[in-house]
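Form P-L/3: holo structure prediction, ligand nicotinamide-adenine-dinucleotide.
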Amino acid sequence: MKIGVIKETRSGESRVATTPVIAKKLIGKGFTVQVETGAGEAAHFHNDEYLEAGVELVDRQTALSADLILSVRRPLMDDVEMMAEKSVYVSHLENCEDDGTLAKLLTKDITPIAMEHIPRISRAQSMDALSSQSNIAGYRAVIEASARFRRFLPLMMTSAGSAKPARLVVLGVGVAGLQAIATARRLGADVYAYDVRPETREQVESLGAKWIDIDVGESGEGTGGYAKELSDEAKQRQQELLSDELAKAHVIITTALIPCKPAPVLIPNEVVKRMREGSVIIDLAAGNGGNCQLTEADKVVEKHGVILVGHTNYPSMMSTDASNFYAQNLFNLVQIMVEEQEGQLVFRDFEEDEITQAAQVRQA
Ligand SMILES: NC(=O)c1ccc[n+]([C@@H]2O[C@H](COP(=O)([O-])OP(=O)(O)OC[C@H]3O[C@@H](n4cnc5c(N)ncnc54)[C@H](O)[C@@H]3O)[C@@H](O)[C@H]2O)c1
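OUTPUT (holo model):
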């Protein structure tokens, strides 16, 4: 069975779906691995390293004609044209905002497997790319904030005077939010956090951060561990109750998301106006409309003296480790997608395993 790995072409994407280490492991399992020349360069994995691992370096068309294509992002329309019928394409499919490529894949009888649909169950943890990549985003968000903030994050006592620890607020305590809290605590900031799912309070406190205790009058608990959209009244109430806490913050990191919905607005214009000059807002929901009303996707802007960072792809900013983790997630997934029959690797019936069953996309 041939695995094809293409160079990512979506704007700003520096990750790659397999590394030389993982490619070698795949070859050891009996696959032929074909990687598009130069696919790993932006993540510092070079052609000679892939060759040494036993990979065949090929052109894009050849990589796309494999039985199983591994990628980071959804394909371009031209890519789908080059794929073979009945092949399998695995990537983040980002199908909440599909651009027609998904329908095209299905028309060609190509099986799309969406990494964001891997269920959040213990057996699938090692394949959970949303978690591995969100973890990186949470870490990098704090590093970005500290680089933009013109003051210290920790308490700093020196012979030239002392600086108080920065007040850092994390909104949304999923995987990215928890890592942001942990990283900010390691850097010595005074951390406060809030999530619409009350069960996160214990996790926040166990990391040494303080819980922002507000009651919006309804639970934000949705299905599968995800949040659900709040009613308009609750949204309004949430903004009002959070506003004083947010206005006091030096740094805010927002990660609040609801699958396939616009990000909830947690920081309206009036709150930004009340914040201290030089404060920093890192909006990890920038790609979904932003948790701050003034965020501009893929831009860093200054509004009312506050620096608003709207990067939409933090994992790509750490492309080496992000690719290491993502490639390992894919390797683990591929293990359950295939079986050996008469010395040949063949695809299993994806309906027979709850992981592949959940991750397979059947309609656009
Ligand atoms: N294997 C596992 O069991 C496993 C692995 C990873 C994550 N999870 C769980 O999956 C769930 C989703 O995690 P995620 O990181 O993908 O979340 P996500 O990226 O979908 O959302 C980020 C956070 O934003 C919060 N949020 C949404 N609307 C909000 C609002 N109006 N105000 C404040 N916060 C708001 C959500 O509750 C969530 O915690 C969590 O319950 C997480 O613990 C389980």
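COMMENT: The first helix runs from residue 20 to 28.
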